[in-house]
Amino acid sequence: SGTDDPNFTHLTKSGIALLYNEETNNTYDVCLKLTKEVLTIQKLDVVCTSGSETQANHRAVVLRRQATGGLGLSIKVIYLAASVSISVSLAIYINLSPSCQVHLLRTAGDEVTITVRYLREVPSFLKLPLGSPGLDHSRVSSPLFDSGLHLNGNGNNTTPSPPSPSANEPKYEKRWLDAVCLPLLMARVSRYKAGTDKLRCNCFEVFALDEASTNILQFFTAAESTDWLQAISTNINDLTQENIKIVNKYCSSDDQIVHMGWACESPEDSTAGRTSVFKFLALRGPYFHIFRSPPVTSLSSFSNSICFSLVLWMAEDCWLQARLYLGLEHSLEQQDNESLCFSILVGHGQSHTFRLELASDLAIWEKSFQRAVFLEVQRIRSKSYMCSSQGNVLCFTVDFGSGFTCSEGTSKTVLWRYKFSQLKGSSDDGKTRVKLLFKNTESKQIEMKELEFANLTAVLHCIHSFIAAKVASMDPLFMCSQSFPGNYMNS
């Protein structure tokens, strides 16, 4: 469907699926209707379109206990969703399993009145009263008999003859009626069994912000499942982007939200009994936020998150480096768990690993990290670290405009300077020392500079971030997608 903003591509879609309820172990045909903001699930129901529906919604049966044979009742299947009211010496309302119902009937008195009321969870054809107009009566039997409830009074278990039609006789039609309406703003989808890495086949769930769920939606083919999953995810992402635009109107240029959305955090040590948990992630200003639930109350909610800096560190042992894995050789249906994950390296080796549902989601996060790092480098412009070389205290500076500079620690005299494009390679000992290889533009020779840092990992991450931002600034497609002035082509 169309939209006023060309950046948003929300979809409208409808189709048939199966809805599986893990609690009742029942499966129903449902009709799905997807709009920009809502996913609606409709169930097939029988409605009375004309005439009187008095007592059409329930059936009463009086059972008298015999000397032999008891109540003369056998229960093959009673739908767990049915509400059964049993009157012995007093009325008892139950919603029990078949075994519990059998026990209750066996211990009841000499006369039992059973009233069965048909609910939506019962297949619609079972709810039609006997003799409903417009139906093939040879193929539609009594709901009482279809449910497996047989009385000895009718020994041959045949269906009674339909009553003669009357002017006030009710007429029925099958219709799709709204059963669940899930708002898609801040919603999430999952193809995995809750808390595990086990992938469901051709199935997924949709969870609203308030944790209301669709239960499990099943599809006949993997392609159909992926198509619906992609369409729903697209609308969720579009609503998120619209919400980001609204929030950013009230934020400073240094505090803009770049991207946010759900991801499933996988435990570092699965043997410790930890399970996967959904977290809400946000890239805002110079920080990466991890929430238990979306910050929907106010902007101050961002303080209630685990927060890591992208480039600029309050203490130089706290930073963020994103590593994204994308199995391009796999189709959307064949991608394994590892191919749709990214990890966040924090400080000295601590990491968080997040799993996404679709390759398109991972691509969005990849571009968002690039944009967030670009913004932060543009904001701070340069970063300096104290270091040493051959016993001398030096100052090493990474500058977005001029490149790499090394100067004396006290006099600030510049000892050497290279552009980003002159860096041809590097190696380090994994502890404190790094060798930087630069190409001299005049002699065309490789010049090696060996430096020692107190926190080498932070320095290497900073260098990587600045180079990535420099490469992005030279990409016309990237720059066209950004609203930032300046293109430093000469550095």
Descriptive notes:
GO terms for molecular function: structural molecule activity. This protein is of the alpha+beta class and 491 residues long. The protein folds into four domains: 1-47 and 200-249, PH-domain like (Roll); 52-169, Pdz3 Domain (Roll), CATH 2.30.42; 251-379, PH-domain like, CATH 2.30.29; 382-455, Pleckstrin-homology domain (PH domain)/Phosphotyrosine-binding domain (PTB) (PH-domain like, Roll), CATH 2.30.29. It has six helices and 27 strands. The protein has helices at 98-106, 143-146, 222-248, 359-380, 456-473, 476-480, and strands at 13-21, 26-34, 38-50, 58-64, 73-75, 83-87, 91-94, 111-117, 149-151, 171-183, 188-190, 203-207, 216-218, 257-266, 277-284, 287-291, 306-309, 320-324, 341-346, 350-355, 382-389, 392-399, 403-408, 414-418, 423-428, 433-439, 446-453. The strands form five sheets. The protein has a seven-stranded antiparallel beta sheet with strand order 10-3-2-1-13-12-11, covered by helices on one side. 21% of the residues are buried. Mean pLDDT is 75; it is low at 1-6, 77-95, 130-159, 312-319, 325-337 and 484-491.
